[in-house]
TrEMBL record:
GO terms for biological process: DNA transposition. SUPFAM superfamilies: Homeodomain-like. InterPro entries: Homeodomain-like_sf, Transposase_8, Transposase_8_domain. This is Transposase. The lineage of its organism: Bacteria, Pseudomonadati, Pseudomonadota, Alphaproteobacteria, Rhodobacterales. Pfam families: HTH_Tnp_1. GO terms for molecular function: DNA binding; transposase activity.
Amino acid sequence: MDEEIPMKKSRFTEAQIMGVLRQAEGGLPVSELCREHGISSATFYKWRAKFGGMDASMMSQMKALEDENRRLKRMFADLSMQADLLREALGKK
């Protein structure tokens, strides 16, 4: 029950993502940025929607909160399943 399902590891660090977004803010065309860094335009716009306007500390804080949220959701699902099993076992007596 306590199996961790690892998330896909990003090829880019938070600092690299912030660097790409800063280059775009500096006026570099998105198509050129994407070609230079080997990313799709969809990836760039996803990063911009998610991380635009953040500094590195805010970005790492958000990632920590997302990780905690994922862990708590998993715990809730496990506890709900255990409660259902207990209810079912008590109901059969």
